[in-house]
Known about the structure:
Blueprint: E1 7-8, H1 15-19, H2 36-46, E2 52-55, H3 62-69, E3 73-78, H4 81-96, E4 103-107, H5 113-116, E5 125-130, E6 141-143, E7 154-156, H6 172-189, E8 190-200, E9 203-205, E10 208-210, H7 212-222, E11 226-234, E12 237-239, E13 242-244, H8 249-260, E14 270-277, H9 283-286, H10 292-298
Parallel strand pairs: 1-11, 2-3, 2-5, 3-4, 5-8
Antiparallel strand pairs: 6-7, 8-14, 9-10, 11-14, 12-13
Amino acid sequence: MPCSDSVWNTAPTSAPAQRKDRYVPGSAAHPAKMLPQIAAHAVATYTKPGDLVLDPMCGIGTTLVEAIRLSRNALGVEYEPKWASLASRNASFASDAGGGGIGAVHCADARQLTEVIPTALHGEVNLVITSPPYGHSVHGQVRSTRETGERGVVKKDFRYSHDPTNLAHVPTAYLLDAFTEILTQCRTMLSPGGKAVVTTRPWRERGELIDLPSAVLAAGKAAGLTPTERCVALLAGIRDGRLVARPSFFQMKNVRDARRQGIPLSVVQHEDVLIFTKPGRCAARAQPCDRTATRSTAFRSRTCTTGRHDGCR
Ligand SMILES: C[S@@+](CC[C@H](N)C(=O)[O-])C[C@H]1O[C@@H](n2cnc3c(N)ncnc32)[C@H](O)[C@@H]1O
């Protein structure tokens, strides 16, 4: 398994350019999508074609799309029916475009991961890639006020949903307990030696720094995973040896507001990437065996199969 560089050059182009023609309409509305190149880099670095990738909080399915396009198979779980349905359509779109892999999406609570995913796939996942929901203050896009006649800057697409039980809407301590539970279940899903890649970043709540990366590191250890690397995935491009920042309007606004209050904030232009390994040696790699049959049965469906809510299809 190759080692990765600790700085990932993942934003040579902007997020919309990376998504162009690869995601179905409506995908842009998710407030906290992973930059596609981050998922692609993790898949290319830690898996080989035919491997299985899992995202327990998959949003619109960026990790699935990038895995499928690199000829890996992918499983996603997402709590919100709206995002799960988009993830499912994005995964099918990637397969139909000749991606080489297939995907299945379950609309469910990731704390029930091992009940939702068929037992035939337990211990079969080679890579988990995921990102917990965090820091809603920097989410959202600016809505054009020309047609509506509204005054000032109007935000759109900054909510995951209105459901208070979505982990995006719970206090940080509760989120971390839940995320520890999710990582514990991911450990069951992983094959020995399999990796879990978690992207995260610090944010501020009423001026106070919330060091989510350190908390996620602790959550991974509590889940029985071994931290093996800590990397940086760039959200800024590199031109003539210099970083070219690509902050959103609301990131810039938050930084300006903070500086006005004397808080010396900088625009964050990277994600922290924490890489964990499931302890144990991978017997399958030492002694190759054919697991294709088991997997294809468990991959019967390419659509949103498990309904947390009625009508989640
Ligand atoms: C940071 S976003 C992930 C975005 C994703 N990587 C993408 O590119 O679209 C976190 C996701 O976790 C979902 N989520 C929140 N609580 C959850 C739960 N209990 N189980 C599964 N997903 C959950 C949210 O709805 C949100 O879509």
